[in-house]
Design a protein that fits this description.
168 residues, mainly alpha, three-stranded antiparallel β-sheet, 70% helix
């Protein structure tokens, strides 16, 4: 435990290790936003869905079905909302890493697990509370989405937090 009462990791020399807030949240947020956005647009593109439609879908969480009729404005709104969520996800990871040292020391496994947790939080808490119309159930869709969240959400922020961890 540090003087502030936060449990942190300990390096091999016995010094507490904590991630830097700015790098973890800002770099992590941008990494998640870009990588997850690319993965979502590529995945949707394989099914014939345009990138604009992907981001209108995100905007529809706030705007409802009218987001699909809003043109470039709702595409931009979707991109902004997507990055807002990405920065939120990075912030939560930062807070976890400050509290639990294993998150820094076992970054790969913790990042992959965090990606799964983010998927389930988004799919079963956030999205159902939004105005998004739910699509049909698909095991393939769930598995692909979990893998995307593991590799393009959890893992990048975990590695960024580990890379920017310092001895306190």
């Amino acid at each position: 435990m540090t003087e502030s009462g936060v449990v942190s990791g300990v390096d091999p020399a016995g010094s507490p290790v904590v991630p830097r807030a700015f790098q973890t949240i800002v770099y992590g947020g941008f990494a998640i936003g870009i990588l997850d956005g690319l993965a979502a647009t590529v995945n949707a593109g394989l099914r014939g869905v345009t990138p604009g439609r992907v981001f209108q879908y995100i905007a529809s969480g706030v705007l409802g079905p009218s987001a699909f009729e809003g043109g470039i404005i709702t595409v931009i709104a979707g991109v902004l909302l997507h990055f807002l969520v990405a920065f939120g996800v990075a912030t939560v990871y930062y807070l976890l890493a400050r509290t639990f040292g294993v998150v820094i020391h076992r970054a790969v496994i913790c990042g992959l697990i965090y990606g799964v947790a983010v998927y389930f939080a988004m799919a079963y808490l956030i999205v159902p509370m939004s105005a998004v119309r739910q699509g049909p159930f698909s095991w393939t869709g769930i598995i692909v989405s979990i893998i995307i969240h593991m590799l393009f959400v959890g893992l990048p922020v975990a590695l960024i937090a580990k890379r920017h961890a310092t001895r306190s």
